[in-house]
Amino acid sequence: MYITNYTRPDLGCSINKLSRFTSNPSEERWKALRMVLRYLKYTINFGLHYTKYPAVLEGYSDVNWIADMNESFSTSGYLFTIGGASVSWKSTK
């Protein structure tokens, strides 16, 4: 989970969902795991790259206050970066 959170956030959702079925994976889950591994094979050089100077912490946030009248929840989120690479983020409804 460390790798998905801090170096490969593009894998976070798929790894999180697959990890729920580690004790008894079905054939469908094995197929999904093979897809993730195939994706990793072709994106091996992708990842977060931090610059040395300046190591400035920046934070951003945003909120959408119930844009659709049929929904009763707003959407909010934040993102923190150090040296130009994301280190923490969250989006909630």
Overall SS class? alpha+beta
Strand count, sense and closure of the main sheet? Answer: 3 strands, antiparallel
| Strand runs, count | 3
- The stretches of 5 or more residues where confidence is low (pLDDT under 50) are none
- What spatial order of strands do you see in the largest sheet? 1-2-3
Structure description:
With 93 residues, the chain is α+β, with helices and mostly antiparallel strands. Helices cover 31% and strands 26% of the residues. It has 3 helices and 3 strands. The protein has helices spanning 2-6, 12-19, 27-42, and strands spanning 57-64, 75-82, 85-92. A 3-stranded antiparallel sheet has the order 1-2-3, with no helix packed on it. Strand 2 and strand 3 (85-92) form a beta hairpin. The two termini are 23 Å apart. The model has no long low-confidence stretch (mean pLDDT 79).
Write the layout of secondary structure elements.
Elements: H1 2-6, H2 12-19, H3 27-42, E1 57-64, E2 75-82, E3 85-92
Antiparallel strand pairs: 1-2, 2-3
Summary keywords:
31% helix, three-stranded antiparallel sheet, flat, 26% strand, 93 residues, 3 helices, alpha+beta
